[in-house]
């Protein structure tokens, strides 16, 4: 691993990276990974559901459950690349910032939490309104639940952002030993999980797996991610061995009826595929940056969070009309009707998402309020409240009840802790 990750010599609080040659701009490779990753996430969420409605119940299948198609997920499951890009972006942002670490974190908290408020403002009353209009309860519950579950990424990413200043210090002191230790934690977690038969123990890997790929982003930010072809070959090779000889399924996306998921909770196989993806993407970086449409990246980058939060509500809106109201089930995946109907389906989804994007993208920029005294106690309390709110929505969704209200109160509490308190 030392051949892949060189120990840095620069100061941890101000790492230098490829973007330092463009001090007033951004690293196009990181923007490309974020935008392309989001595009693939949306494409999958809009394409793979197999939907049918009968006797008041909406059933959901997965097109990737088709035999042999699982190999596609080794590229299309882009969450490892998203966390890797997030690690690089956090390292570069923290390195360029003249703000103290608690204030830097407070700025990131506002940017993560603020776009959630309009989502909650729509989805807390929406189920009650639609139920009163006669919308069937079961499909409405599916939509409300899944809209919240999608926020798991923000809950984990919030942990990564919060520990970034400390993780950078570990990166400076121990270098490659940090991701190796996190990987060892993922190995131990899976051993305990599968030997005990208690799948819930695997959720410890939410920390080990996603923070390991986030930590690799620091090496890219410092220009010290060496020999990416070794990382690609080693990662994909290890994943193939784990799938062939271990208890891991081939798909990197959870499938209905599968006894084991590589995603929920994440497994060592997911980490191995993530390493392979990072190596492959870094190996192709020159060509990818050269071919990347700069104007599209500049337009899409400030709208990524909005697309992530609202693409599933767009899917539920189209499903409600086409599948539930009109009774048109999605065709069998791979059939002629599926291929013929997909452009129409995709066009309808884009048509619904566009006004949502126009209306809610403005919330990606928090209001220009002053920040309070940036101390670790208050900032970590704010991070804890925001995290509790996001986790509550992840577990319970926006189903009618007190959970969404408690989540919003926690989010607001965390945001309020970032502003100055009135003096008495």
Overview of this structure, please?
The structure is a single chain. About 5% of the residues have low confidence. By secondary structure, the chain is mainly alpha-helical. The chain has 19 helices and 2 strands. The protein has a two-stranded antiparallel sheet with strand order 1-2. It starts with about 25 loop residues before the first helix and ends in an 8-residue tail after the last helix. Helix 7 packs antiparallel against helix 18.
Offer a few descriptive terms:
424 residues, mainly alpha, two-stranded antiparallel sheet, 19 helices, 2 strands, 64% helix, 3% strand
Please give the structural blueprint.
Blueprint: H1 28-47, E1 49-54, E2 57-62, H2 73-76, H3 79-96, H4 101-113, H5 116-123, H6 126-132, H7 137-149, H8 152-162, H9 164-174, H10 177-196, H11 205-221, H12 228-245, H13 268-283, H14 285-291, H15 294-300, H16 304-325, H17 336-360, H18 376-396, H19 403-416
Helix pairs in contact: 1-3, 1-15, 1-16, 3-11, 3-13, 4-8, 4-18, 7-16, 7-18, 8-11, 8-18, 10-11, 11-13, 12-13, 16-17, 18-19
Estimate what percentage of residues fall within beta strands.
under 5%
Order of helices and strands: HEEHHHHHHHHHHHHHHHHHH
Let me know the largest β-sheet.
Answer: 2 strands, antiparallel
**Uncertain spans, ≥5 residues at pLDDT below 50?**
6-24
* Mean pLDDT value: 89
Structural class determined from secondary elements: mainly alpha
Radius of gyration: 22 Å
Q: Helical stretch count?
A: 19
Shape: globular
Strand order of the largest sheet: 1-2
* Percent helix range: 55-70%
Give the termini distance in whole angstroms.
Answer: 56 Å
């Amino acid at each position: 691993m030392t051949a892949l990750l060189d120990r840095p010599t620069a100061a941890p609080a101000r790492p230098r990276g490829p973007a330092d040659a463009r001090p007033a701009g951004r690293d196009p490779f990181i923007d490309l990974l974020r935008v392309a990753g989001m595009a693939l996430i949306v494409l999958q969420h809009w394409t793979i559901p197999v939907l049918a409605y009968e006797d008041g119940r909406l059933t959901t299948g997965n097109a990737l459950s088709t035999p042999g198609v699982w190999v596609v997920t080794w590229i299309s499951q882009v969450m490892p690349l998203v966390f890797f890009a997030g690690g690089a972006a956090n390292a570069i942002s923290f390195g360029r910032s003249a703000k103290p670490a608690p204030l830097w974190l407070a700025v990131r908290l506002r940017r993560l939490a603020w776009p959630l408020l309009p989502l909650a403002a729509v989805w807390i009353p929406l189920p009650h309104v639609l139920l009163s209009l006669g919308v069937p309860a079961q499909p409405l519950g599916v939509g409300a639940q899944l809209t919240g579950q999608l926020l798991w990424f923000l809950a984990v990413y919030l942990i990564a952002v919060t520990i970034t200043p400390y993780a950078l210090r570990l990166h400076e002191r121990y270098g490659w030993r940090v991701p190796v230790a996190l990987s060892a934690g993922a190995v131990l977690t899976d051993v305990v999980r599968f030997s005990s038969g208690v799948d819930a123990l695997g959720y410890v890997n939410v920390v080990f797996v996603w923070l390991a790929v986030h930590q690799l982003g620091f090496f890219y930010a410092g220009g010290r991610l060496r020999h990416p072809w070794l990382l690609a070959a080693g990662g994909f090779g290890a994943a193939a061995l784990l799938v062939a000889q271990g208890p891991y399924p081939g798909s990197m996306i959870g499938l209905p009826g599968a006894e084991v998921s590589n995603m929920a909770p994440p497994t060592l196989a997911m980490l191995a595929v993530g390493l392979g993806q990072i190596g492959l993407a870094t190996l192709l970086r020159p060509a990818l940056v050269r071919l990347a449409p700069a104007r599209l990246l500049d337009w899409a980058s400030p709208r990524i969070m909005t697309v992530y939060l609202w693409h599933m509500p767009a899917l539920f809106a189209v499903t409600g009309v086409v599948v539930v109201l009109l009774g048109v089930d999605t065709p069998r995946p791979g059939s002629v009707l599926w291929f013929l109907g997909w452009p129409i389906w995709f066009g309808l989804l884009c048509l619904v998402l566009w006004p949502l994007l126009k209306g809610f993208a403005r919330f990606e920029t928090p209001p220009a309020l002053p920040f309070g005294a940036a101390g670790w106690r208050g900032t970590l309390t704010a991070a804890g409240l925001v995290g509790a709110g996001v986790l509550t929505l992840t577990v319970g969704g926006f189903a009618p009840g007190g959970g969404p209200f408690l989540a919003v109160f926690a989010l607001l509490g965390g945001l309020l802790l970032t502003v100055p308190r009135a003096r008495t």
